[in-house]
From TrEMBL:
This is Nucleoside diphosphate kinase. The keyword Nucleotide-binding applies. Its EC number is 2.7.4.6. It comes from the Bacteria.
Length: 146
């Protein structure tokens, strides 16, 4: 097994309901190290660039509208097999299908307002992390396994 990095975004619906600490605590209790984090707002153009792979799909406009304009919290997490482990903890996109105890099952409002985004592959993590963070913003020393 290897140490990986993944990107998680706490989405506007979770930020506005003040679920930030609850969500981060789930990751920390699962063995993840928070190695970068910030609260920001992005515009529609940035949201469209971030979700470029979904352009042309029926849900693209709603997806980008949801991410744009309101505060979000991008977070870089690190641990062994971080991508798969985070996806499991996050749960299915549709909270009605998400396993009990997952973040989306417990906090999502609906399929569009599902509280968190998580990288779905090493390639997406490699693209998504630098979208929000420069190398100088990542605390590499936190990646040491305990």
């Amino acid at each position: 097994m290897s140490v990986e990095r993944t990107l998680v975004i706490i989405k506007p619906d979770a930020v506005s309901r003040e679920l930030i600490g609850d969500i981060l605590l789930r990751f920390e209790h699962a063995g993840f190290h928070i190695i970068a984090m910030k609260m920001i707002r992005i515009g529609r153009q940035e949201a469209e660039m971030f979700y470029e792979e979904h352009r042309g799909k029926p849900f693209f406009p709603a997806l980008t509208e949801m991410l744009a304009g309101e505060p979000i919290i991008p977070v870089v997490l690190s641990c062994e097999n971080a991508i798969a482990k985070a996806r499991e903890l996050i749960g299915a996109t549709d909270p009605a299908l998400a396993a009990e105890g997952t973040i989306r099952h417990d906090f999502a409002l609906d399929k569009s307002h599902n509280s968190v985004h998580g990288s779905d592959s090493p390639a997406s993590a490699a693209r998504e992390i630098p979208f929000f963070f420069g190398e100088a913003e990542i605390c590499h020393s936190r990646e040491v396994l305990r």
